[in-house]
């Protein structure tokens, strides 16, 4: 899987992303950009050194606009009418749609009534559409991003002085992590919109075979970090194709075993893939239990609520993991003890594992007055003879 990793070392803005993608070696079709109908533009790509690192800087030169604001619907129509490849058009529309919703919420208007100010300027539109074009040209299948820097302080906007991170930036990145940084606007609304619309959040650069590295330079200089956006292009290894999952854990030293068992069942009923309890020695030598559960992102909130409800824990640890699973099939076989379901696991069509459902075997054994292990053996034998 071709994967693009965005590492906002010093921040992320529209010009930094398009510059980093150009630095990777992607080529921008100026004729397609011209089809946006934004007038006579000059796209300037230069080399800059930032803290000893060679990077690309991107600048759009255009005739001075008397009014730089454009309604969202106008920007949307510009993209619809331009000669963009379908995927590039979709990416650009998604970024601006998210931005319109964020701005609309902040200003208390419907998205279609939003007037883009700084983001409505020619250079910002070119940055977003150009980045979408470059991503499409690279054939990227997956885009991931590390948490961007928050910045701090205030910045001048069309509406006056506003805090950093800007209200639109924070609205766009709800549910994602921002990392602490020095002062200044490190993550712009345009950069936040592209992160939110196009990328999956990861805590660090994932395992991949690196093919190309690009650096996009920002204009300002920071004392605590080079103002660079790093883009890494590579091939993900098979392990990266596993589904994302969460391991939730809590140490318990004041919960009875009976209630721990109830909590285990509650976590499974809430949607956990698996749950477990193990003995641990806690502070002051006290014996306790390690309570754990494995769940998907969708089920995380429900499983956490079940654990808090049924245990005495005041906190949970959460670790993101990759979960690889075999293709599964439930097959019913006929035995002398009755029908038994067998769970089969396959990899690329090849059978690797087969296990009879234990509850089926136990119930059949009770009905027939035989040992459970005999029913299990009979079910496996019937499955192999299919």
Brief overview:
The protein is of the alpha+beta class and 386 residues long.
Architecture overview:
The protein has a 5-stranded mixed sheet. The chain has a 4-stranded antiparallel sheet with strand order 13-14-12-15. The chain has a 3-stranded antiparallel sheet with strand order 16-17-18. The longest helix is centred in the N-terminal third of the chain and has 22 residues. The model has no long low-confidence stretch (mean pLDDT 91). By secondary structure, it is α+β, with helices and mostly antiparallel strands. α4 packs across α5 and α4 crosses α7. A hairpin with a 2-residue loop joins β16 and β17.
| SS class | alpha+beta
C-alpha end-to-end distance: 36 Å
Portion of residues within helices: 25-40%
Number of helices: 11
* Overall outline: elongated
What is the spatial order of strands in the main beta sheet? 9-6-1-11-10
Average pLDDT rating: 91
Biggest beta sheet summary:
5 strands, mixed
The arrangement of helices and strands along the chain is EHHEEEHHEHEEEHHEEEEHEEHEEEEHH
What fraction of the residues are assigned to beta strands by DSSP? 25-35%
Helices and strands in order, then pairings?
Blueprint: E1 2-7, H1 14-24, H2 30-34, E2 42-50, E3 53-61, E4 70-71, H3 72-81, H4 86-107, E5 115-116, H5 122-138, E6 142-145, E7 154-157, E8 160-163, H6 167-172, H7 189-198, E9 200-201, E10 208-217, E11 228-236, E12 243-252, H8 257-269, E13 274-281, E14 287-295, H9 297-310, E15 317-323, E16 327-335, E17 338-347, E18 350-356, H10 358-368, H11 372-384
Parallel strand pairs: 1-6, 6-9
Antiparallel strand pairs: 1-11, 2-3, 4-5, 7-8, 10-11, 12-14, 12-15, 13-14, 16-17, 17-18
Helix pairs in contact: 1-5, 3-4, 4-5, 4-7, 8-9, 10-11
């Amino acid at each position: 899987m071709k994967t693009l990793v965005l590492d906002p070392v010093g921040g992320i803005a529209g010009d930094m992303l398009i510059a980093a993608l150009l630095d990777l070696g992607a080529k921008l079709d100026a004729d397609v950009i011209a089809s946006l109908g934004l007038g006579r533009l000059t796209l300037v790509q230069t080399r800059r050194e930032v803290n000893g690192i060679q990077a690309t800087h991107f600048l759009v030169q255009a005739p001075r606009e008397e009014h730089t604001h454009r309604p969202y619907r106008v920007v949307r129509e510009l993209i619809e009418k331009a000669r963009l490849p379908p995927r590039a058009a979709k990416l650009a529309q998604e970024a601006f749609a998210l931005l319109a919703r964020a701005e609309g919420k902040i200003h208390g208007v419907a998205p279609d009534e939003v007037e883009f100010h700084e983001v409505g300027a020619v250079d910002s539109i070119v940055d977003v559409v150009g980045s979408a074009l470059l991503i499409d040209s690279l054939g990227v299948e997956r885009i991931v991003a590390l948490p961007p820097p928050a910045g701090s302080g205030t910045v001048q906007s069309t509406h006056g002085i506003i805090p950093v991170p800007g209200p639109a930036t924070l609205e766009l990145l709800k549910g994602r992590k921002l990392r602490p940084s020095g002062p200044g606007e490190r993550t712009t609304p345009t950069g936040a919109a592209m992160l939110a619309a196009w990328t999956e959040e990861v805590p660090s650069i994932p395992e991949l075979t690196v093919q190309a590295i690009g650096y996009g330079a920002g204009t300002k200089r920071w004392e605590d970090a080079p103002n660079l956006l790093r883009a890494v292009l590579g091939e993900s290894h098979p392990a990266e194709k596993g589904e994302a999952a969460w391991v939730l854990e809590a140490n318990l030293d004041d919960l009875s075993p009976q209630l721990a068992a109830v909590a285990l069942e509650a976590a499974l009923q809430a949607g956990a893939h698996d749950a477990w309890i193990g003995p641990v020695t806690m502070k002051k030598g006290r014996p306790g239990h390690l309570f754990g559960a494995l769940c998907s992102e969708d089920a995380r909130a429900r499983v956490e609520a079940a654990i808090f409800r049924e245990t005495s824990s005041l906190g949970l640890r959460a670790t993101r993991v990759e979960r690889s699973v075999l293709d599964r099939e439930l097959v019913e076989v006929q035995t002398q003890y009755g029908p038994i379901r067998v769970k089969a696991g396959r990899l690329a069509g090849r059978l690797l594992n087969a296990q009879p459902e234990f509850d089926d075997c136990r119930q059949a054994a009770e009905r027939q007055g035989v040992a459970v292990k005999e029913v299990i053996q009979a079910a496996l034998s019937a499955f192999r003879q299919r």
